[in-house]
Design brief:
heterodimer, A: about 900 residues, alpha/beta, Ubiquitin-like (UB roll), Rossmann fold, Dimethylsulfoxide Reductase, domain 2, 8-stranded mixed beta sheet, 7-stranded mixed beta sheet, 25 helices, 37 strands, about 25% helix, B: about 425 residues, de novo design (two linked rop proteins), 4-stranded parallel beta sheet, 4-stranded mixed beta sheet, 16 helices, globular
Chain lengths: ~900, ~425
Amino acid sequence: MTKIIIDGKTYDVNPKKNLLEICLSIGLDLPYFCWHPELGSVGACRQCAVTRYRDEKDTEGRLVMACMEPVQENMRISLKDSEAQKFRKNVIEWLMTNHPHDCPVCDEGGECHLQDMTVMTGHTHRRYKFKKRTYKNQYLGPFINHEMNRCIQCYRCVRYYRNYADGKDLNVFAAHNHVYFGRHEEGILENEFSGNLIEVCPTGVFTDKTLKKNYTRKWDLTNAPSICNQCSLGCNIIAAERYGKLRRILSRYNGKVNGYFICDRGRFGYEYVNHRKRIKHTLMRNRQNGNLQETNKDSISASLKEIISKKKVIGVGSPRASLESNYALMKLVGAENFYHGVSENEFKMMKTVIDILQNFPVRTPSQKEIEKADAVLIIGEDLTNTAPMLALAVRKAAKNVRGKLGEKVNIPEWNDAAVRELAQDAKNPVYILSCHSTKLDDIAADVYHGTPDEISKAAYTVANFISSDAPADSEISEDASSFAKNISSILLNAEHPLIISGTSLLSESAIKSAANIALALNSKNLKAEISFVVPEANSIGLALMSGEHFGTFNEKQDNENYETVIILENDLYRKAGKNTADGFLKKFSNVVVIDHTENRTTVKADFVLPAGTFAESDGTLINHEGRAQRFYQVFVPTGEIQESWRWLKNINTRMQNQNGKQWDNLSDFTNALADEMPILSGITEIAPPPGFRMAKQKIPREPHRYSGRTAMHANIDVSEPKPPEDPDSPLTFTMEGYRGEPPSSIIPFFWSPGWNSAQSINKYQIEVGGPLHGGDPGVRIFEPKEIPGKYFNIIPEKFDRREDQWFMFPVYHIFGSDELSALSPGIAELTPECYLALNPDDAQKLNLSKESRVEVIISEEKINLPVKIKFELAAGTAAIAAGLPDSPFIDSPSWIKINKVE
Amino acid sequence: MERPLTKNIRPGRPPLDLKEYERADGYQSLKKCLKEFQPKEVTKIVQDSNLKGRGGAGFNTGMKWSFVPMNGDIKQKYLVANADEMEPGTFKDRILLEGDPHLLIEGMIVSAYAIQASTGYIFIRGEYTEAAEILRKALSEAYNAGYLGKNILRSGFTFDLHIHTSVGRYMCGEETGLLNSLEGKRAIPRAKPPFPQVSGLFGKPTIVNNVETLCNVPHIINNGPVWFKNLSRTDDGGTKLYGVSGKVKKPGAWELPMGTTIREILEEHAGGMMDGVKFKGVLPGGASTDFLVEEHLDVKMDFTNLMKAGSRLGTGTMIVLDDKTCPVGFVHNMERFFAQESCGWCTPCREGLPWVEKILRTIDSGDGTLEDIDLLLFHTKYLGPGNTFCALAPGAMEPLQSALKYFMDDFKRHITQRGCPWRH
């Protein structure tokens, strides 16, 4: 620690931080624009000027920019010095010479960092009497609105987009007071993390188009801390509603998980919540006309209670439903009748993943810890499309070499432009084993392409090169072997080697070979880490529960006696081929589906119970890291929508605790689950229970500036309705309650006096850019075991291509491959048509060009697809876009025949 | 009087080719260095000579070199000649570039040897097409003669030298803006520290020196630091290329002892003011230096004395203001240039200079108010060194603040008479 004196007061501060970071960490209000905790300092905006004195005799001092100032022992500075204050006010005055006076109609208004800083510096009077500069705005795609006249040229957008997210198509053009930030021409922003521009921009240049469509002032939103459920990473988000519509998603800072950012699928994929296909009422099939018809909660509950009490019931759980909902289903049907709503292949892969995470001496890092790796090997995952924020984390890991290089010549890591200049293209090594080219190839030291099995074989060989105890592959190709040799020495020389694999390739071997490498490194006393990408938001949670995959129901004894199935938040047609799914559903005379949006399964149901989406329910999810996290209801939905676990409670009167009290709220389920499953015992610690109060008050979901409450329902009834109660959390659905800082796990929105924008996060952190007060939320359930671990030793056989068949494997798209987000209009606009990709030789063999269409039979379905040519695909393989609204169910290993459509 | 920098220059005739240059003792300093001196010794000699940077900042050149890391583990270092002569009113480097290209090349090889740089660039102003052509020819001669390239004169020292023609921004004359531009990036300045000596071109140790600075190096090596110091009339060593533009009888540039007075340059070399006009003021070192007036005519033109008089030596090429030229229009013209050339990186410069320019335009056209004067003073106060990211805006404020100091009456006359007194 270093001692510095700020306005006569002595502080012990972290010498690795710059003066601005220190002032903010102490809690002082020092305005800034161009500095960002993730982007570092460049000294462009000159807003954070403070006076620095040579020594105690110096009374004049000189202005320095706090963001560019390293701290020194006994350094004396002043924020209050009148010259510094004047200068900071002047900077705002200069910025305001060209900033429009459109605050009252600006999308950013009320959450604008520029507004806050203007108020903070006290600039009120306009002396500039000339015309303002104007620009043309650009169309940037369905997500982001561009309004360049508001720009204050802080350069954050291009620094984030180009230097942090490695985007190419946003740049700064022109010079002097006509500097322009945009694309070289209008068009959709290409980078998958472009939405963060909305939060990075200190004013209203880049704003959320999805919010703009349903605009409401930001202080009028009802907010809740939530967890993104559009992939397995569990990024923390703030979801916000008004008038029963979900209106936007912001990233919710978590220093262990997603930090300041989220991906575009996570930010803009929420609109399915407002979709016309939402199920809002209970539906029952009319036995006469065969139609699903609206009924009501009481009558459907009564019917279901009767069926359940008389008939044998099985339940199909879901990797996208909360732990509590899955548990409630398991409780209702009994563990022996609880099935996982996943394919056989996914089930096996998940069991393997759990086995490795639970029983191996290898640690799985959090998203933010991945950024600290100094050598990364990715096996078979296209991270940008399957776990986008992990791709961003790997990008950061690759660049982390800069800090080390800077250290050698005394350039602090926060001095962003300088460390980038020093490091040039230097990167920590990232190696990719993949069936096809991926977006991360641009930072990769090397890439190896092969069939899914060839990738695993190469990975097994890496493990064998690291430790001869790991099984060797006698048939490995020379190419793969030399690639593997190279990687093995890179990994052995790293301090924090990391292996990333996952389930998306549908290859258990990929997962096992990854484990072998981590084990081998571990045997060399290297603390290698392993991270798996899994299919859905709660895949890990479901996989921890007992039960088999639903395909095994056929093998169940007396399965013909089961007449009822309850399917929880799951479209079985995404988990099995059409005939298989049809066949499964036909076995039951009562198909009960609890889900929130119409899909192929709900239309086959006899009873449909309208579930809440993440925005209308509370629950716990376990992400890919094994981090259990709680999401909270944002608003009380209209109609009969309620949490799945609450529906299950409604139709099951047996849910009681020991003293006979009926389970009622979420924590009854969470507590019971924690009791029953020791591995989940920590989930009660994730967040305070519903009874938690601060100063005897609940935490409000609405900011104190929330307006119009008495008028909102006046068209229905002039007396204001009683606000809804929330029995499941310490949060209220109103603006009343505790106004201070809540515990980190239940922060509905970030706000601090004078700090109305996302920048107020500074006030919630122990140190700027560090953990939230009280620690970052989430409870880890896996820690490495102190046992040696056993190598997997079944190496796949050599790939033999077939004469008239192609080995099929899936490829994914960030926009479209996720079931729910694909329903959001913006995402849908960017979703491609499902296609089949072949390498050029194979295409030629089939007489196909990129304009051709083909007919293939996949999972018993005949489908017609356009063709893409991809040079890097292995001969004899075909890639098919998976998970898109028009994609078939894809299982592996599977071979397909391809017929040209003439 | 010795004129080492310009002794080979023959106005109206092409520059010396390699043979001629060699006959005029060319490349002797290189041979001497390679034979007699260790790199550090070369740096020491240049440091002892008190050669100060001729680009304007006036930092001791040898001292600057001494900050370059000299341990063996740094493989790549760069030397860059700043030939991006963009300062308004300045044309002294052009004379050297066009008149004696081998002198610059020799100076660069010796300097590169001192810091053990293996690659050099001459970053030359885009409009200097003739100079670039001349340099290209000289470079090729030097390569053919073995003065450049691998294993120079069998010494084991390797140095490659390239020419880069700028696409033309004033910012490229600032050494870090120049480096960014040379890397193909936007010409915006870099924060210091780190200095280019530690992390410069492509993040490698780099020295950027002005053309005139580098051209002094061979002579210092040949004749020693004491000789060099004695060339000067003051403590700042050597000779200096001084130039004069404005309404004088004989505008031009001359190599004179460092410390020659303004009066001597103006009256003896530039031939005094044209008939019918009177001297009113002078920017002694280019557009970004403070005005000096009548009372300063006997100030010696060197780094120290001009600083004492309230201005700077800058590039040493002065712009003369006469009594028939409106000082407001004169300054407005300067500020229009600076506002246009602001790179747009930092707020005060990007937003402040256009404001200043607009105010001056308003005053000049007769629509100014007294509050406008306050706003100009406000800018001269707050666009100072340290407040802005680089020296562009503070430089832009120097002619303005001194004009307001010496010619305030003229500004006020524009306001009270609602127009420019010179035009009516």
